[in-house]
Fold:
Amino acid sequence: MGRQPCCDKVGLKRGPWTIEEDHKLMNFILNNGIHCWRTVPKLAGLLRCGKSCRLRWINYLRPDLKRGAFTESEEDQIIQLHLRLGNRWSKIASHFPGRTDNEIKNHWNTKIKKKLKLLGLDPVTHKPIEKTEKTNGNSSNKPDNDDDNGQGTNKVSPRKDEEKPEEIQLNLEETNDLFSNYHMLCESFDLDSWLNQGANTCCSSSYSMEESNKSSMGETNSTIQQDSLKQWVDSVDSFLSWDSFIH
DNA sequence: AAAACTTTCAACCGCGTCCGG
DNA sequence: TCCGGACGCGGTTGAAAGTTT
Structure:
């Protein structure tokens, strides 16, 4: 009774993309645009499902992607947006030009969550974590009962803190500072105006086909746009090569 | 030097939503 | 109004890279 799978998986390739596949997909999209993801792999000569192609394009091949680490201010903005929007990563990503929802989600799960916990804040509610350690006398002030730590790795994470109580002291002092800084930031940050500003200037990770076609494909067929696309294709080769090297 | 462990992030999966017939 | 196909989103996984012991 369940849904049909998005595609017939028999004979379809999975896993990391190769440089040839990237080139095929990129060339196809640049030449034809995207009208239906389901047909893209067939027409592009790829043994992938449409979903996989879409994901690869959005998260890796899109021309407007910004690469590199998140800045402090980006992190702060993510925290603010998460406070308002929750785990709506695509909404959050729409305020960061060139960032994908997947990227932001990953960054949240691997870095920001920990940061907030260090600040004594619940990453879900952004409120101070109940100081149960005071009341329940469960002396081990394990900062993170690391419920999650993603892959349920709470098995070993507290090891260092437990072994080095003097470091806990330092961390707690730092945490207090960070905590007050965080609240100052929250109070001073004008999210609404920032959101409005962002909404005008940013593009979302859910890069729409029309947008894609207009901006990347040059709906006007202007030669200028074609040239800049060529330049982009050339420039993107460098990281594709690098990518294949990694793979 | 090597094994054990942790972190990162690309990719997958399944569900919800949208939209056309 | 209902149904089915396609897209988009968020959660999760797992391999590779990095770090510690």
In short: Residues 72-201 of chain A form one domain. Residues 3-4, 6, 15-16, 36-38, 50-51, 54, 58, 87-90, 101-102, 105, 109, 150-151, 206, 246 of chain A lie near DNA strand C (CB under 10 Å from a C1'). Residues 82 and 92 of chain A are 7 Å apart (CA to CA). Residues 1-5, 132-172, 198-222, 241-247 of chain A have pLDDT under 50 and may be disordered.
